[in-house]
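Human: If only I could read backbone structure tokens as easily as an amino acid sequence. Take your time, and here it is.
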Amino acid sequence: MIFSSDAKSWHPTHLLWLLTAWLGTVGNLPLWIAIWRLPETQGLRGAATLLAFFVVVLGILALFLSLVLWPRWLKPLGVLFLIMSAASSYFMLTYGVVIDTSMLINAAQTDVREVRDLLSWSMLASVLLGVVLPGYWWWRQPVRKVRLKSLMGRQLGLAMAALLLATLVFWLAFQDMASLMRNHKPLRYMINPLNSLYASAHLVVGQASKATQPLLPLGEDAQLRHPPASEKDAPLVILVLGETARAANFGLSGYARDTTPALRQLQTQGQLVYFQDVSSCGTSTQASVPCMFSHLGKAQHDRNKLRYESLLDVLHRAGLAVLWIDNQSGCKGVCDRVPQVSTQALQVLGLCKEGECLDEVMLKVLPQQLAALDPVRRARGTVVVMHQMGSHGPAYHKRSPEAFKKFTPECTSSALQTCPTEHIVNTYDNSILYTDHFLASTVGWLQSQSRPTALMYLSDHGESLGEKGLYLHGMPYSMAPKEQTHVPMVVWLSSALQKQRGWSMACLQGQSAKALSHDHLFHSMLGLSQVATSVAKPELDLFAACAPTR
């Protein structure tokens, strides 16, 4: 911190005003662009509403900065706010996202591969123009020494004036501003840097609160309904946890392009069922995966403050062999107490490159990993979760090998807004085509096994490909478009397993048009694995309706 008694040095309050002006204008560029495009801000009255919104935001920022920016931490906090505003602005302008707690969690859990996919020249330019240049100037400015009493009177006076101004303007334009905020909820998540600060505080408090909670056991009475007579009768169930696959581009859902030819062939043969109307728990992996493997269901999970064991703990407690194979950024805590393996360190020729592997690598390592499981548990049955890289963006072009690039030209830039929409869709569709191949290959491998087998596939969330200016995923669920919440799900059962359970694919097909959700996964996996427990809800078990009456 440079303090000076020179009359030409900056008074702390003047620097505060300058930062307020920068954050209110340049730092909130995505907000003003979004408001400018709204029909409510067109015409004379619309312009007045826009002006009122600007004055209110400026007043709120001035109030906030007046209370937190004092000489001792004026420079570092100023730079921090520049970083927050520049980062938020870049992602909001580039991908159409908004900044809330779930988005910050996604950012915090981003691994090296995902960071590499996000890097672009436009991001570098944003950092240079939004952080480096103004931050360097800000840090170099000499600050005048001011008596604390005088500074407090001046700064608190500014805070009061800002509060009164914001309140007065909001009251005068209340009807139009309230309508604007009510009809366009994303606006409330776009005010920099208050959005990031609020989300950060909410995240820290929430995680701190949850960290103090003990892990509560789940399904302590779990046991197998019908233990297999021998190891050759012990079923092998594979759950493929899809990544970023949206139902809208899944060929089996009626999409104009046949992006699922291999699965369609299995469906035509009556071996596979596609469920048409499935909703996700969340719009991000961090939100969806813990919810999918929870017994609570979305409504309770969203407001739950306690820590419970997951579906995998219940399956393990029932005596089954459980394995998690990860080709993504982790299991978000749901597999912490069962055997697990990550593909990040693998270097399989033709499948792995630069620390990232295609999903088929999981199938390649599966036999070896199964053999390493406890043989006593394997004799009762095995459940494997394979967590895909799937269609994770924005580098969709990395999610499919050359042999599956059927739709061209592709978008090879991480700055999706610079690509024509049809190129983005081509690239994304190729990733779905490869997922189709991976799932069909897994079914083929299961068919070669001498024991009863099954496969269930369900994506964690969907994706926006430019509709309404939105890209990627992670929008707050209450305002998320259907592209981010409508997900594909398929089930395949071997003939041996159908015979063993007395189930039929025709019965499952009869449920394919029902409105389902991630809430059904926990209970359906218990049913598919033949685990009985008091926490199971038969009404949410897809297989319960197909069980023969005894």
Remarks:
- The mean pLDDT is 91.
- The CA atoms of residues 231 and 379 lie 4 Å apart.
- The chain is about 45% helix and 10% strand.
